[in-house]
Amino acid sequence: MALILPTGCHCRSRPNDPPIHPRNAGTAGDGMIHYHGTPITPREQLRRMAGRNFCISYAAPQDLATCLEIGQALMFDNGAFSAFTRGAAFDEEGYYRWLEPILTPPHWAVIPDVIGGDEIQQWNLVRRWPFRRDLAAPVWHLGLSTAYLMRLLDEWPRVCFGSSEEYWNVGAPAWCGRMDDAFNEIAKRHQVMPWIHGLRMMGQSNGDWPLASADSTNVAQNFKRDTGCAECKARTIDKQQTPPGWNVRETQARLI
Q1: Residue 246 forms beta bridges with which residues?
Q2: How far apart are CA 197 and CA 189, in angstroms?
Q3: pTM higher than 0.70, yes or no?
Q4: What is the pLDDT of residues 207-253, one digit of tens each?
Q5: Are 86 and 57 in contact (CB under 8 A)?
Q6: Which of 247, 222, 240 is closest to 37 using CA atoms?
Q7: Using an 8 Å Cβ cutoff, are 114 and 125 in contact?
Q8: What is the 3-state secondary structure (H, E, C) of 141-185?
Q9: What is the topology classification, in CATH, of domain 22-245?
């Protein structure tokens, strides 16, 4: 039976639509969780965002203490992309040492990944994760196979979607098509959508895909230009919500 959504929702079912696969409200909450990337300066602007959710990167942890004090929940990013862009080696053991005293519920961390790496490289990092699985999420890069995505979803309570290589440009036509591929495959296996987190995907808060959570540095980078108020910009963003479910779509034939 199709899930009937409230009147006015752009994605509500019509009589001939395939069934919507709803997002797991018991796991991912009733709406998308927005993790605001840091650092956010000046500090007084960050403090005005008390009660928001934050993303702290291992590569830039300046706001960690303040966010632990005022934040509702934190996600910890591994900083692998920052290391990649600097041409530096990622310090896996250093990341684990950094996480050990702070990785407690409701906070969670992104498992180390290899930018541009293959599935074997990614899996080798996933299997070395030393902490509880419910406090972590492995990364599925959109260029990897959906078979690998299904493997991650079978074994982990949440999975991050990462945009890299030919799918680096979030929102581009190729990226959108690949997101359709992924959610189509998920819907074939899961009656209820699992927790999918969109790395750098907060701009898709009002998009087509039922992301349970996402992060970006939109507020940190743009609030001074847009409003002069970080909390005001975060409030506007946090009101935007992804659809609660997914209708399987026709897509172009692609290697999946």
Answers
A1: 21
A2: 18
A3: yes
A4: 889 999 999 999 999 999 998 999 999 999 999 998 888 888 776 65
A5: no
A6: 222
A7: yes
A8: ECCCCHHHHHHHHHHCCEEEEECCHHHCCCCCHHHHHHHHHHHHH
A9: TIM Barrel (3.20.20)
